[in-house]
Amino acid sequence: MTKMIKPVRVLVVGCGNMGAAHATAYHNMDGFEICGIVSTGNSKVLLNEKLGGGYPLFSDYNDALAATKPDAVCISTYPDTHESFAIKAMENGAHVFIEKPLADSVEGSQRVADAAKKYNKKLLVGYILRYHPSWEKFIELSTEMGKPLVMRMNLNQQSQGAKWTVHRNLMKSLSPIVDCGVHYIDVMCQMTRSKPVQVSAIGARLTNDIPVDNYNYGQLQIRFEDGSVGWYEAGWGPMMSETAFFVKDVIGPKGAVSIVAKEAGASGQSDNVDAHTKTESIKVHYADLNADDKFSRADSWVDLTDEPDHQELCNREQSYFLKAILEDIDLTNPTDDAINSLKIAFACDESVKTGQIVQL
Q: For 146-163, what is each residue's pLDDT tens digit?
């Protein structure tokens, strides 16, 4: 007779776009059982209805922890609560899945990582692109282009309605180049596997709807030890342009690799979360020349058959979280990578605010 494995009881904290997607993953997976849903507003009621009802609902995180005594906590709240919520969960014996960024400061992210070690709990940060086969392919192909690399990436979002409300709330604690930039900085670090040595960045405050010390448009530049350079641009708000808002491009001595997402990169898609992870096709350009200095190899296209949507990516993240808990997988390296990309993003933030180049 097969031994039944007890499901991991998970408390879902935060019911916005990411929290709802993770809750849907837990609801549909055999290895997890939702023991409670937490949010300060009405979003928990709507999520509960969407999942068929029946889950205990809480408005206060501490009350929920005490009442449910979960095995794991999924934190998808605004970044200013990440550190305190994660540490409290681990103090109470729970593993933690936490949306990026790990915390709203580098020191805070290190304190969360230290708590995971102290209490011997799994800590997985939601770097969703790490679970995407075509982004893995994009990174793999980039390493075939030689060194140094030039990495050009952006994700500008022309937001309105509920999405603009979310962006305004996020900007109470972080800028777009920190909140979104950590994903793409992480990708650049994977592409070069080299030490970042210097950053510079610029930013502009294009609306009075955000705090006076923040900005809703930013562009950062990173120099790596191996001579590679990268830039990333992020802007949020109703004023943002949708011309060239989706650029994912890497150039090296041997050629270039580009994500060409015809549909996801189309007008009207910039604030569609499903479009943010889509790749559709990868174009590979080879720099090889013949005796006449003409290209000797035709460009090739990699059309990706395994193209998970946003929900499927969340399912894959949570499958890995479950595997890490059940098989006691060491998550030190991905946690260190999450802290490193956050450190670089905050250095860029400092550069915007001081107007100075920041040495790492």
A: 999 999 999 999 999 999
